[in-house]
Amino acid sequence: MTVSAHLEHMTLQFSADMQNQKANTASDMGVLKQKSRDGAGKTTQMDQAALGGMVFRRAKSIRAEESDERLMMELTELVQRAVKDSSWWEKQGIDCAIVAGAFLCLPAGFLLLGTASPFCLLTGLLLMGTIHAIITVKGSHLASHRALSNSKAWTEFWNIFFTEVCGSFSAKAGVDAHVKLHHAHTNIIGLGDSSTWKLPFLPRYIYLFMAPLAVPIITPIVAVGLLKDYSPGLALRTICTILLGLGAHYWLLVHVSGFQSVSSTLLCMMLCRAVFSLPYIHVNIFQHIGLAMFSPLQRPKRIYQMTHGVLNLPRNPVLNWTFGHSLISCHVEHHLFPYLSDHMCLKVKPIVSRFLKDNGLPYQEDAYLSRLRLFIQKYEELMVFAPPITELVGIQ
After folding, report:
1. What pLDDT digit, counting tens, does each position of 313-331 carry?
2. Count of C-beta atoms within a 10 Å radius of residue 141
3. Cβ partners under 8 Å of residue 20, min gap 6
4. Are 322 and 134 in contact (CB under 8 A)?
5. With contact defined as beta carbons under 8 Å apart, do 123 and 112 qualify?
6. Phi and psi (nearest 5°) for 43?
7. pTM above the 0.85 mark?
8. Strand pairing partners for 294?
9. Which of 28, 168, 303, 323 could form a cystine bridge with 72, CB 3.0-4.6 A?
10. Is residue 201 packed enough to be buried (19+ CB in 10 Å), middle (13-18) or exposed (0-12)?
């Protein structure tokens, strides 16, 4: 499904939901009227007052829901227009070029790691860490959202390659946890509330500044642990692709970079993959935890859910290139329109921010260091205890 087709589908779905809500309301009002009558076929004054209050509240709720649907439809039309006016280069080409550029830098990275100069070795580690982040974070994220290609086959291939071969994680688990759960149920308690990122038994400074360095080791272990829920064929494929990626990385360090011992080779592999581990963990918790949480039974409409439960970080020249705009400075846009590529999220950012502000909706932004200070100060409240249900639960 193309981006334009997806946006058109969203517009049609909004209209259908609005019609269904109106029909349900009419039915509910009929039931209320029937229940309010006494045995003689008349309504008491108390029944009439109660019925009138319920009708008023229900009508007010319907008007609010219609307004919410209208806002989302209007914003979708604006974004859809921007997408149609964009070239392939803007919609997919720029991001494909960035990922391809990362692969082209691999020879330089492996050669730098083989030099005797400490400066060149450090440069090689930073370069390889950047390449790894672009491929495994930006690449796998875009592939999981089908934003790199309109072809279903190529999308599946790139998702497996970036996530399993390069990232040592299960592509299916990534799509299930991120696309199907987190995006569909953003900040819904017990579903997409980012609680999987919490490790309450770790002290704040250990969690924020030391534990992320173990991500390269933890990632394949977690991936293997998830295989028990897969079919034998899928589990075998996942194991083979993860081993292929790790084996290729090890082989290149030995035969291109010239590492001699097993321990030094494995240490270099871990260091290369851990360069961006700290900001990776930080970004995943900063942009959702601590914001509005919603009850599964009383969740707001999509435009309220995303604008109250998602936050943008300021544009960062390093993280925006390595992780992608949709994970850093355009996270609100990404959650509203998850099929857009990083560059398209950046392109529609002025449209989305202006529309939300003009219609009295929040457009949440905060600095990286500001969020870090918040999590240090309120670590127990945000990362140890259960997320509180805010007043926004009853917004609908």
Report:
1. 999 989 999 999 999 999 9
2. 23
3. none
4. yes
5. yes
6. -105, 140
7. no
8. 188
9. 303
10. exposed
